[in-house]
Amino acid sequence: MNPLTLDFMQRALLAALLVGLAAPAVGVFLVQRRLALMGDGIGHIALTGVALGFLLGTAPVLTAVVVATIGAVVIELVRQQGRTSGDVALALMFYGGIAGGVLLIGLSDEGTNANLLSYLFGSLTSVSPQDVVVISALSAALLLTVLAVGREMFAVCHDEEYAKVAGLPVRTLNLLLAVMAAVTVTVAMRVVGLLLVSALMVVPVATAQQLVRGFRATVLLSLGLGVVASTSGVLGSYYADTAPGAMIVVVALGGFLLSTLVGLLLRRRLVAEVVR
Amino acid sequence: MHVSAPVVQLRDGVVAYDGRVVLSSLDVTVTAGEVVAVLGANGSGKSTLVRTVLGLVPLAAGSVELFGTPLTRFSDWPRIGYVPQRVGATTGVPATVREVVASGRLPRMRRLRRASPADRSAVDRALEVVDLADRAADSVATLSGGQQQRVLIARALTCDPDLLVLDEPTSGIDAASQVALAEALARLVGRGVTVVLVAHELGAMHPLVTRAVTLADGRVLHDGPPPALDHLHLHDPEHAHPHHDDRTPADGPVRRVSPWGLS
Predict the structure, then answer these.
(1) Does residue B72 belong to the interface with chain A, where contact is any CB pair within 8 Å?
(2) Burial of residue B133, with CB atoms counted within 10 A of its CB: 0-12 exposed, 13-18 middle, 19 or more buried
(3) pLDDT band for position B2 (cuts 50, 70, 90)
(4) How far is B232 from chain A (nearest CA, A)?
(5) What is the per-residue pLDDT across B157-181, written as a single tens digit (0 to 9) for each?
(6) What's the CATH number where B161 sits?
(7) CB-based contact (8 Å) between B155 and chain A?
(8) Under an 8 A CB cutoff, do A213 and B99 touch?
(9) Is B104's CB within 8 Å of A33's CB?
């Protein structure tokens, strides 16, 4: 049966397309600032938000956005104050996020293990029409924000002190990035799952870096790679009947391996030419 | 425009980290057209001094004025070009020389607008001043230490600053690159740019420097013409010693004061 004719697959594919664009667009700044694991931490925290949604009987996506945003802002504030304890503070929030999520789900009536798993690793059938609306709106907002302040964000993530002396609103931009990361995580969680969401923010960026030299080129290529990984992962998981998040990440990692090899060959040829 | 106002004026500046005093009641004034070197050993407070002047380190007491405006109200940041220590020239994502240099132009660009021809030519000129126009499309990570330093200088030049502040621009850079760096700075000084540079030793910068401020233990030890090339430190009798009650520098004679104040 052609999966493209199925309603739930159309929704899953559309969501995957949007997530494949938004996740690397935000993730590139986290990687640039060497905070690649921040998405993971926010994913953990968002689990508490999802569970809170179950417990309160409201849409888990909404509570996840709120809790993840609060968590991301707290992480950023700790980092800004940051002396020594930032690393430990992050770790504490990760544990708290997972533990809080599992606890609250246990307390709620709706929360089952299957339900929990669909949030942790993504689920094709779980993307509802309302989810598609929310995912579309938030992805569009994320991409527009990156377009609007991408230059400033680049400067801040490249060299925070320089950006301060240049008069850029560094604190605001850092908090904005934290909020964007939180929104990305919650947008992507239905398709990729909270535990794997960060991979889609990081792996396409790491893959693109193997092949191109500039920041802008890295961003554009990673958007393309993100879309290829997310949509082909969703299709693959339909045929293989597996969690889409896992398939997406495996595809993305396969691309990373391939690009590493290609990059290696390109550089070797470049060296050979220079030597000759 | 404040023609007569000093470019930098630090009065009674006190900076403390975790209760430890790093700068103690420091007075430093830089006037337009000067090329001031801030010298001193590691831990003398020289980097802290310039970072304080730029607002990156908070003052515990005292005041800073830039171009006659108190730092807290200062907003004319395009007039200042800052070249931080080179540690941060590369990040987790590659960027081309041109991308990094162009990010310096942001203070003069309109938000949400594409780069104008004036913006692009400002970036071109900055690349030419540091002699890196031919490397514009290369990834910064592939450049040598001296070239990366010049990238950061070009970034600071894109707004045509009146004051250029460089933190240890020559550290870890080979002699040839130091000369290239000094030549680039000389071109700027020729245009009337005021320069403050932090250095461990002056090296190739020496001919440019009009004045040297030597710090030790967070105090001014020497403020005057730069020390002779082969004698960069601290006990030049020709120059005034503004803080006679200073603690003696570590390598000087031991101050003969008994713990009870009787000598």
Answers:
(1) no
(2) middle
(3) very low
(4) 30
(5) 999 999 999 998 887 778 888 888 8
(6) 3.40.50.300
(7) yes
(8) no
(9) no
A115 to chain B, closest Cα gap in Å: 36
pLDDT above 50 for B237: no
Q: How do residues B90-129 score in pLDDT, each as one tens digit?
A: 778 999 999 999 999 998 887 777 888 999 999 999 999 8
Q: What residues of B are in contact with residue A212 (Cβ under 8 Å)?
A: 94
pLDDT of residue B87: 64
Residue at B248 is within a domain: no
Q: Is B3 within a domain? A: no
- Residue spans of chain A under pLDDT 70: 82-86, 110-111, 276
Residue B75 falls inside a structural domain? yes
| B99 → closest Cβ in A148, A168, A215 | A215
Q: Which residue of B has its CA nearest to A219?
A: B93
Domain count of chain B? 1
Is pTM beyond 0.90? Reply is no
B64 neighbourhood in chain A, CB within 8 Å:
none
Task: Among A83, A145, A161, pick the best mutation site for testing chain B contact (most B Cβ within 10 A).
Answer: A161
Residue B80 lies in a domain: yes
Query: The domain containing residue B81 runs over which residues?
Result: 8-224
Q: Is the Cβ pair B88, A166 closer than 8 Å?
A: no
- Residue in B with minimal Cα distance to A156: B103
Instruction: State the nearest Cα–Cα gap between B157 and chain A, in angstroms.
Output: 11
Which domains, ranges and CATH numbers included, belong to chain A?
3-275 (1.10.3470.10)
Partners of A164 on chain B (C-beta within 8 Å) are: 54-56
